[in-house]
Amino acid sequence: MDLKLVQAKLLYIKENINELMREVMEENEDLQKLALDLNRRQLQEQGVDSSGKKLGDYADRTKRLRKAAGLQTGFIDLKFSGDFQDEFIIKDNTGDIIFSIDSENWKRDILVEGLRHRKGFGEDIFGLTAESLEELKRKMHPHLKAKIAEILNA
Prior knowledge:
With about 150 residues, the protein is mainly α. The protein has one domain. Helices cover about 55% and strands about 10% of the residues. It has helices at about 5-15, 15-25, 30-45, 60-70, 85, 110-115, 130-154, and strands spanning about 90, 100-105, 115, 120. The longest helix is centred in the last third of the chain and has 24 residues, at about 130-154. The termini are close together.
């Protein structure tokens, strides 16, 4: 293969790596499912948002309700019935954003922005911590490697 052609392909890959990663995510439902599961796991197992910030503690009244329902009470996990997190979705993105997570559930705006005197948890409830993102990248690596090989071998 011509050296100039290889250099041009490598430059293309470098300049379009986010687009290539976005394509890998769009083409692979298992990776999408993993990203959503990692987001849920952060909330349910650690009670943290995508920046790693703890969401806080439940009020005593809420703790009693959760305990009666057989749910953990150690930290806010945004899960009672599970419907909010069950409706997490991968959104279409452009630019430098490879993927983002959102929810189609009716509670979304209330949990993000708050309601009346209750403060919301912000947009950071959607997305992955650095640790979760590393796990996703490890799973994405073989798929991205194959996509790059396609470009180099074309």
